[in-house]
């Protein structure tokens, strides 16, 4: 068992607060991604779990054991950094075997473990090679393999794929998930790349300015962002947030988008009439300009990305994006209309940014 419980975790660097009272429980064998922009406190959180930093306040527990003051070497965690630390004078085999030799495992067991990790990470063809001549991609695979070989119950990875190329990153996303399932580890994965978090994690912890914003499964945080920060941070292109005012009561609630028109709104216990009308670009249908209940707009830019087209639309001072996947021919300057899917609309309080629906 290796559940991690972070309670009231706070870290001050001088007068700067990098982490503000973070509470997070990571279940045994769970894969949790810490996701957020640069400087939001992801690495600080990881370093505290690993024992490389001491929290100013709060505690770290592994299952029922308080680990807060336990030195790094006694925590039994595996750690992979952005910059791989490989012994370049050694072969790939010796790098993978290093931690096992330090632990004085029998040679037969070392051989078996190295083989297993090498097979999982596609390192078998390189086992006899000196690490010095290997590509960045293979070196990062090796760094992951070396930490994985000792089979830590808790495996911490801090942006392990940020230095490798895009194609290899896609391969590694699958391999890492496979590795975690095979070894049954509790994995904490730091990234600022939403695609990595969305594809690999069981749950995503979204952070901003040292504060945990939301924790949930990838689909939960994507579909039901708790505030406008999470709504904007997840999704590419990001969610449209259009200022408007709630009017009407009961089932007849609408949002008046200034100068654009009115759209049906989800029923909310609104504390304020001033809202942001949120709709993801893929939930906006393109309809004929005279379609009833649709909002007329002008196409100001067109981005064609393979099978998808991202339309940049404008009207009455509002900017919106719509993703079009049907090959509908559109050109700049064209007038069309949009109809957001009412079931996918999310409302946010304009002043606080908090979700109302
Ligand atoms: P990145 O992806 O850029 O590493 P991050 O989310 O991992 O970002 P952290 O490295 O945890 O962010 O840093 C959080 C904040 O704390 C940043 O503003 C950073 O400058 C600051 N910080 C981190 N370590 C120190 C330190 N040793 N001394 C002073 N400030 C620090």
In short:
It holds the Pfam family OB_MalK. With 357 residues, the chain is α+β, with helices and mostly antiparallel strands.
Q: In terms of topology, how is this protein built?
A:
Layout: E1 4-13, E2 16-26, E3 31-35, H1 42-50, E4 57-62, E5 65-66, E6 77-80, H2 92-102, H3 107-120, H4 136-149, E7 154-158, H5 166-183, E8 186-191, H6 194-200, E9 203-208, E10 211-216, H7 218-223, H8 228-233, E11 240-247, E12 254-257, E13 261-264, E14 274-279, E15 284-287, E16 295-305, E17 308-315, E18 318-324, E19 335-340, E20 346-349
Parallel strand pairs: 3-8, 3-9, 6-7, 7-8
Antiparallel strand pairs: 1-2, 1-4, 4-5, 9-10, 11-12, 11-14, 12-13, 14-20, 15-19, 16-17, 16-19, 17-18
Helix pairs in contact: 2-3, 2-4, 3-4
The structure holds adenosine-5'-triphosphate (ATP).
Q: How would you characterize the overall build of this protein?
A:
It is a peripheral membrane protein. It is found in: Cell inner membrane. This is Carbohydrate ABC transporter ATP-binding protein (CUT1 family). By secondary structure, the protein is of the alpha+beta class. Strand 1 (4-13) and strand 2 (16-26) form a beta hairpin. It has a six-stranded mixed β-sheet with strand order 6-7-8-3-9-10, sandwiched between helices. It starts with a strand and ends in an 8-residue tail after the last strand. The protein folds into two domains: 4-232, 3-Layer(aba) Sandwich (Rossmann fold); 238-349, OB fold (Dihydrolipoamide Acetyltransferase, E2P) (Beta Barrel), CATH 2.40.50.140. It contains eight helices and 20 strands. The protein binds adenosine-5'-triphosphate. The site of adenosine-5'-triphosphate has 12 residues, from strand 2 and helix 1. Adenosine-5'-triphosphate is lined by residues 13, 16, 18, 36, 38-44, 192.
């Amino acid at each position: 068992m290796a559940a991690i419980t972070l309670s009231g975790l706070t870290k001050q660097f001088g007068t700067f607060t990098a982490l503000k009272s973070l509470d997070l429980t990571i279940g045994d064998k769970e894969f949790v991604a810490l996701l957020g922009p640069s400087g939001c406190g992801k690495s600080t959180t990881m370093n505290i779990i690993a024992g490389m930093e001491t929290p100013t306040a709060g505690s770290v527990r592994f299952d029922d054991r308080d680990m807060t003051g336990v030195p790094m070497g006694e925590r039994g965690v595996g750690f992979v950094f952005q910059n791989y630390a490989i012994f370049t004078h050694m072969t790939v085999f010796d790098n993978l075997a290093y931690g096992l030799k330090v632990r004085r495992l029998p040679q037969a067991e070392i051989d078996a473990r190295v083989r297993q990790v090498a097979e999982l990470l596609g390192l078998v063809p390189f086992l006899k090679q000196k690490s010095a001549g290997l590509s960045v991609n293979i070196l990062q695979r090796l760094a992951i393999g070396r930490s994985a070989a000792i089979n830590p119950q808790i495996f911490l990875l801090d942006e392990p794929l940020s230095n490798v190329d895009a194609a290899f990153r896609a391969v590694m996303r699958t391999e890492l998930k496979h590795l975690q399932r095979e070894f049954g580890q509790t994995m904490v994965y730091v990234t600022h790349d939403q695609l990595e978090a969305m594809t690999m994690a069981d749950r995503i912890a979204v952070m901003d300015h040292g504060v945990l914003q939301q924790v949930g499964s990838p689909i939960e945080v994507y579909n039901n962002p708790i505030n406008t920060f999470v709504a904007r941070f997840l999704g590419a292109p990001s969610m449209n947030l259009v200022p408007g005012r709630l009017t009407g009561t009961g089932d007849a609630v609408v949002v008046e988008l200034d100068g654009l028109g009115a759209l049906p709104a989800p029923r909310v216990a609104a504390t304020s009439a001033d809202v942001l009308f949120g709709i993801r670009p893929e939930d906006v249908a393109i309809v004929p300009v005279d379609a009833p209940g649709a909002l007329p707009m002008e196409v100001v830019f067109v981005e064609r990305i393979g099978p998808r087209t991202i339309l940049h639309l404008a009207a009455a001072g509002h900017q919106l994006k719509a993703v079009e996947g049907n090959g509908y021919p559109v050109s700049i300057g064209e007038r069309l209309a949009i109809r957001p899917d009412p079931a996918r609309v999310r409302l946010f309080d304009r002043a606080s940014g908090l979700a109302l629906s």
